[in-house]
Predict the structure.
Amino acid sequence: MKLFFYFLVAVLALASCKPSSPTTPTSSGKPKVALVMKSLANEFFQTMAEGAKKHQAAHAADYDLVVNGIKNETDLAEQVGLVEQMVAQGVQAIVIAPADSKALVTVLKRAQDAGALVINIDNKLDADTLKQAGLQIPFVGPDNRAGAKAVGEVLAKNLKAGDEVAIIEGVTTAFNGQQRKAGFEDAMNAAGMKIVSTQSGQWEMEKANGVATGILAANPNVKALLCANDNMALGAVAAVQAAGRAGQVQIVGFDNIAALKPLLADGRVLATADQHGDQLAVFGIEAALKILKDKSAPAYQQTPVDVVTK
Protein backbone atom coordinates (compact mmCIF):
# COMPACT_ATOMS: atom_id res chain seq x y z
CA MET A 1 0.00 0.00 0.00
CA LYS A 2 2.85 2.36 0.90
CA LEU A 3 4.63 1.64 -2.41
CA PHE A 4 1.39 2.27 -4.29
CA PHE A 5 1.03 5.62 -2.50
CA TYR A 6 4.51 6.76 -3.51
CA PHE A 7 3.86 5.56 -7.09
CA LEU A 8 0.59 7.49 -7.23
CA VAL A 9 2.25 10.66 -5.90
CA ALA A 10 5.00 10.34 -8.50
CA VAL A 11 2.51 9.85 -11.34
CA LEU A 12 0.47 12.86 -10.24
CA ALA A 13 3.58 15.00 -9.94
CA LEU A 14 4.76 14.07 -13.42
CA ALA A 15 1.36 14.83 -14.86
CA SER A 16 1.27 18.17 -13.07
CA CYS A 17 4.57 19.26 -14.57
CA LYS A 18 2.85 19.95 -17.88
CA PRO A 19 1.32 23.38 -18.49
CA SER A 20 -2.33 23.41 -17.54
CA SER A 21 -3.34 25.55 -20.51
CA PRO A 22 -1.88 27.06 -23.70
CA THR A 23 0.29 30.10 -23.09
CA THR A 24 -0.04 32.04 -26.33
CA PRO A 25 -1.71 35.41 -25.80
CA THR A 26 -5.48 35.40 -26.22
CA SER A 27 -7.44 37.72 -28.44
CA SER A 28 -9.09 39.14 -25.31
CA GLY A 29 -5.83 40.81 -24.38
CA LYS A 30 -5.89 39.41 -20.84
CA PRO A 31 -2.40 38.94 -19.39
CA LYS A 32 -1.17 35.38 -19.03
CA VAL A 33 0.59 34.57 -15.78
CA ALA A 34 2.74 31.46 -15.36
CA LEU A 35 3.15 29.99 -11.89
CA VAL A 36 6.38 27.97 -11.75
CA MET A 37 6.78 26.01 -8.54
CA LYS A 38 9.03 23.40 -7.00
CA SER A 39 7.99 19.78 -6.44
CA LEU A 40 4.29 19.11 -6.82
CA ALA A 41 4.89 15.86 -4.91
CA ASN A 42 5.12 18.16 -1.88
CA GLU A 43 1.69 18.89 -0.44
CA PHE A 44 2.71 22.50 0.23
CA PHE A 45 3.04 23.21 -3.49
CA GLN A 46 -0.11 21.28 -4.32
CA THR A 47 -1.89 23.64 -1.90
CA MET A 48 -0.19 26.63 -3.49
CA ALA A 49 -1.34 25.52 -6.94
CA GLU A 50 -4.94 25.02 -5.81
CA GLY A 51 -5.01 28.45 -4.18
CA ALA A 52 -3.77 30.05 -7.40
CA LYS A 53 -6.34 28.21 -9.51
CA LYS A 54 -9.17 29.29 -7.22
CA HIS A 55 -8.01 32.90 -7.42
CA GLN A 56 -7.91 32.78 -11.22
CA ALA A 57 -11.37 31.21 -11.35
CA ALA A 58 -12.68 34.10 -9.26
CA HIS A 59 -10.91 36.62 -11.53
CA ALA A 60 -11.29 34.88 -14.88
CA ALA A 61 -12.00 38.16 -16.63
CA ASP A 62 -8.70 39.64 -15.44
CA TYR A 63 -6.05 37.09 -16.37
CA ASP A 64 -5.23 33.58 -17.54
CA LEU A 65 -3.10 31.22 -15.50
CA VAL A 66 -0.62 28.47 -16.37
CA VAL A 67 0.50 26.19 -13.52
CA ASN A 68 3.78 24.28 -13.64
CA GLY A 69 5.88 22.26 -11.20
CA ILE A 70 8.90 19.98 -11.17
CA LYS A 71 9.20 16.31 -10.17
CA ASN A 72 11.41 16.85 -7.13
CA GLU A 73 12.91 19.68 -5.12
CA THR A 74 16.38 19.43 -6.70
CA ASP A 75 15.50 19.11 -10.40
CA LEU A 76 16.97 22.45 -11.41
CA ALA A 77 17.29 21.59 -15.10
CA GLU A 78 13.58 20.89 -15.34
CA GLN A 79 12.66 24.16 -13.68
CA VAL A 80 14.98 26.06 -16.02
CA GLY A 81 13.27 24.31 -18.90
CA LEU A 82 9.83 25.31 -17.63
CA VAL A 83 10.86 28.97 -17.49
CA GLU A 84 12.20 28.74 -21.04
CA GLN A 85 8.91 27.14 -22.18
CA MET A 86 6.89 29.94 -20.63
CA VAL A 87 9.03 32.59 -22.32
CA ALA A 88 8.76 30.82 -25.68
CA GLN A 89 4.99 30.63 -25.31
CA GLY A 90 4.67 34.33 -24.60
CA VAL A 91 3.43 34.72 -21.03
CA GLN A 92 3.40 38.26 -19.72
CA ALA A 93 4.46 37.36 -16.17
CA ILE A 94 6.27 34.51 -14.41
CA VAL A 95 5.65 33.98 -10.69
CA ILE A 96 8.34 31.59 -9.52
CA ALA A 97 9.28 29.67 -6.38
CA PRO A 98 12.86 28.86 -7.43
CA ALA A 99 14.36 25.50 -6.50
CA ASP A 100 17.74 27.20 -6.07
CA SER A 101 18.46 30.80 -5.09
CA LYS A 102 21.35 31.22 -7.53
CA ALA A 103 20.99 28.70 -10.35
CA LEU A 104 17.71 30.12 -11.70
CA VAL A 105 18.97 33.70 -12.04
CA THR A 106 20.48 33.23 -15.52
CA VAL A 107 17.28 31.90 -17.10
CA LEU A 108 15.20 34.50 -15.29
CA LYS A 109 17.42 37.20 -16.78
CA ARG A 110 16.68 35.76 -20.21
CA ALA A 111 12.98 35.81 -19.36
CA GLN A 112 13.12 39.43 -18.25
CA ASP A 113 15.18 40.40 -21.32
CA ALA A 114 12.48 38.77 -23.46
CA GLY A 115 9.88 41.07 -21.90
CA ALA A 116 8.36 38.84 -19.22
CA LEU A 117 7.75 40.30 -15.79
CA VAL A 118 9.29 38.07 -13.08
CA ILE A 119 8.00 37.88 -9.50
CA ASN A 120 9.92 35.81 -6.94
CA ILE A 121 7.89 34.00 -4.25
CA ASP A 122 8.61 31.51 -1.44
CA ASN A 123 12.39 31.09 -1.82
CA LYS A 124 14.22 34.39 -2.23
CA LEU A 125 16.74 34.71 -5.05
CA ASP A 126 20.30 35.49 -3.97
CA ALA A 127 20.86 39.25 -3.76
CA ASP A 128 24.51 39.18 -4.89
CA THR A 129 23.76 36.93 -7.87
CA LEU A 130 20.92 39.23 -8.91
CA LYS A 131 23.20 42.25 -8.62
CA GLN A 132 25.90 40.60 -10.73
CA ALA A 133 23.29 39.83 -13.38
CA GLY A 134 21.97 43.39 -13.28
CA LEU A 135 18.52 42.19 -12.25
CA GLN A 136 15.89 43.66 -9.98
CA ILE A 137 13.18 41.08 -9.22
CA PRO A 138 10.53 41.82 -6.59
CA PHE A 139 10.25 39.26 -3.78
CA VAL A 140 6.87 38.40 -2.28
CA GLY A 141 7.10 36.08 0.70
CA PRO A 142 7.44 35.55 4.44
CA ASP A 143 10.32 36.16 6.83
CA ASN A 144 11.47 32.56 7.07
CA ARG A 145 14.06 33.26 9.75
CA ALA A 146 11.54 34.90 12.06
CA GLY A 147 9.04 32.09 11.47
CA ALA A 148 11.57 29.37 12.25
CA LYS A 149 12.79 31.24 15.31
CA ALA A 150 9.22 31.45 16.63
CA VAL A 151 8.76 27.69 16.12
CA GLY A 152 12.09 27.06 17.85
CA GLU A 153 11.04 29.19 20.80
CA VAL A 154 7.97 26.98 21.31
CA LEU A 155 10.26 23.95 21.32
CA ALA A 156 12.68 25.58 23.77
CA LYS A 157 9.90 25.89 26.34
CA ASN A 158 9.60 22.10 26.31
CA LEU A 159 13.34 21.51 26.81
CA LYS A 160 15.95 22.58 29.33
CA ALA A 161 19.24 24.38 28.83
CA GLY A 162 21.98 22.02 27.70
CA ASP A 163 19.66 19.56 25.95
CA GLU A 164 20.95 18.14 22.68
CA VAL A 165 19.05 18.99 19.50
CA ALA A 166 19.60 18.49 15.77
CA ILE A 167 18.50 20.41 12.68
CA ILE A 168 17.33 18.81 9.44
CA GLU A 169 17.65 21.62 6.92
CA GLY A 170 16.36 21.95 3.38
CA VAL A 171 18.36 22.31 0.18
CA THR A 172 21.49 24.11 1.32
CA THR A 173 21.57 26.49 -1.67
CA ALA A 174 17.98 27.64 -1.10
CA PHE A 175 17.69 30.97 0.70
CA ASN A 176 14.52 29.99 2.57
CA GLY A 177 16.27 26.84 3.79
CA GLN A 178 19.24 28.89 4.96
CA GLN A 179 16.94 31.32 6.74
CA ARG A 180 14.96 28.60 8.48
CA LYS A 181 18.16 26.95 9.66
CA ALA A 182 19.35 30.33 10.98
CA GLY A 183 16.04 30.90 12.76
CA PHE A 184 16.23 27.50 14.45
CA GLU A 185 19.81 28.29 15.49
CA ASP A 186 18.75 31.68 16.86
CA ALA A 187 16.14 30.07 19.10
CA MET A 188 18.30 27.15 20.24
CA ASN A 189 21.35 29.28 20.98
CA ALA A 190 19.28 31.81 22.91
CA ALA A 191 17.82 29.01 25.05
CA GLY A 192 21.20 27.39 25.68
CA MET A 193 20.59 24.18 23.74
CA LYS A 194 23.42 22.12 22.25
CA ILE A 195 23.10 21.65 18.48
CA VAL A 196 24.84 18.31 17.87
CA SER A 197 24.12 17.89 14.15
CA THR A 198 22.87 19.83 11.14
CA GLN A 199 22.20 17.84 7.96
CA SER A 200 20.18 18.36 4.78
CA GLY A 201 17.03 16.37 4.11
CA GLN A 202 16.67 18.18 0.75
CA TRP A 203 13.04 19.06 1.64
CA GLU A 204 11.98 15.42 1.07
CA MET A 205 10.34 12.94 3.45
CA GLU A 206 12.31 9.85 2.48
CA LYS A 207 15.66 11.65 2.54
CA ALA A 208 14.87 13.23 5.92
CA ASN A 209 13.84 9.85 7.30
CA GLY A 210 17.31 8.48 6.53
CA VAL A 211 19.01 11.58 7.95
CA ALA A 212 16.93 11.43 11.14
CA THR A 213 17.66 7.72 11.54
CA GLY A 214 21.38 8.44 11.37
CA ILE A 215 21.16 11.36 13.80
CA LEU A 216 19.24 9.29 16.36
CA ALA A 217 21.75 6.42 16.10
CA ALA A 218 24.77 8.72 16.49
CA ASN A 219 23.24 10.89 19.24
CA PRO A 220 21.36 8.74 21.78
CA ASN A 221 20.73 11.77 24.00
CA VAL A 222 19.22 14.02 21.33
CA LYS A 223 15.95 15.51 22.59
CA ALA A 224 14.60 17.26 19.50
CA LEU A 225 14.70 17.40 15.71
CA LEU A 226 14.02 20.77 14.07
CA CYS A 227 12.87 20.18 10.49
CA ALA A 228 12.87 22.99 7.94
CA ASN A 229 9.65 21.76 6.32
CA ASP A 230 6.78 19.46 7.22
CA ASN A 231 7.63 16.88 4.57
CA MET A 232 10.89 16.29 6.41
CA ALA A 233 9.11 16.37 9.78
CA LEU A 234 6.96 13.45 8.58
CA GLY A 235 10.13 11.52 7.77
CA ALA A 236 11.59 12.39 11.16
CA VAL A 237 8.46 11.18 12.97
CA ALA A 238 8.74 7.80 11.24
CA ALA A 239 12.42 7.57 12.20
CA VAL A 240 11.69 8.37 15.84
CA GLN A 241 8.97 5.75 15.97
CA ALA A 242 11.18 3.14 14.29
CA ALA A 243 13.92 3.86 16.83
CA GLY A 244 11.48 3.24 19.68
CA ARG A 245 11.87 6.80 20.95
CA ALA A 246 8.36 8.14 20.47
CA GLY A 247 7.60 10.62 23.24
CA GLN A 248 11.31 11.07 23.96
CA VAL A 249 12.27 13.21 20.95
CA GLN A 250 10.35 16.39 20.15
CA ILE A 251 9.84 17.34 16.49
CA VAL A 252 8.97 20.66 14.88
CA GLY A 253 8.41 21.54 11.24
CA PHE A 254 7.49 24.39 8.89
CA ASP A 255 4.59 24.81 6.40
CA ASN A 256 1.48 23.51 8.22
CA ILE A 257 0.51 20.99 5.56
CA ALA A 258 -2.69 18.98 6.07
CA ALA A 259 -0.79 15.70 6.53
CA LEU A 260 0.81 17.12 9.68
CA LYS A 261 -2.42 18.00 11.49
CA PRO A 262 -3.03 14.53 13.04
CA LEU A 263 0.56 14.51 14.29
CA LEU A 264 0.12 17.93 15.88
CA ALA A 265 -3.10 16.74 17.48
CA ASP A 266 -1.53 13.67 19.11
CA GLY A 267 1.76 15.30 20.01
CA ARG A 268 4.09 13.51 17.62
CA VAL A 269 4.90 16.97 16.23
CA LEU A 270 5.04 19.88 18.65
CA ALA A 271 4.76 22.89 16.32
CA THR A 272 5.02 24.14 12.76
CA ALA A 273 4.84 27.45 10.91
CA ASP A 274 1.97 28.40 8.62
CA GLN A 275 3.11 30.61 5.75
CA HIS A 276 -0.34 30.32 4.20
CA GLY A 277 0.62 28.25 1.18
CA ASP A 278 -2.85 28.57 -0.32
CA GLN A 279 -2.32 32.33 -0.56
CA LEU A 280 1.42 32.63 -1.21
CA ALA A 281 1.18 32.28 -4.99
CA VAL A 282 -1.91 34.50 -4.95
CA PHE A 283 0.12 37.28 -3.29
CA GLY A 284 2.67 36.95 -6.10
CA ILE A 285 0.04 36.88 -8.84
CA GLU A 286 -1.68 39.96 -7.44
CA ALA A 287 1.66 41.76 -7.31
CA ALA A 288 2.31 40.81 -10.94
CA LEU A 289 -1.09 42.05 -12.09
CA LYS A 290 -0.60 45.32 -10.24
CA ILE A 291 2.82 45.88 -11.80
CA LEU A 292 1.53 45.05 -15.29
CA LYS A 293 -1.18 47.64 -14.77
CA ASP A 294 0.68 50.37 -12.84
CA LYS A 295 4.25 49.81 -14.12
CA SER A 296 5.73 50.10 -10.62
CA ALA A 297 6.86 47.56 -8.05
CA PRO A 298 8.13 47.40 -4.45
CA ALA A 299 11.37 45.46 -4.01
CA TYR A 300 9.89 43.39 -1.18
CA GLN A 301 6.41 42.51 0.01
CA GLN A 302 6.38 40.57 3.28
CA THR A 303 3.63 38.00 3.70
CA PRO A 304 2.38 36.51 7.00
CA VAL A 305 3.76 33.48 8.83
CA ASP A 306 2.22 32.12 12.04
CA VAL A 307 3.15 29.44 14.57
CA VAL A 308 0.74 26.50 14.78
CA THR A 309 0.62 24.09 17.74
CA LYS A 310 -1.82 21.45 18.97
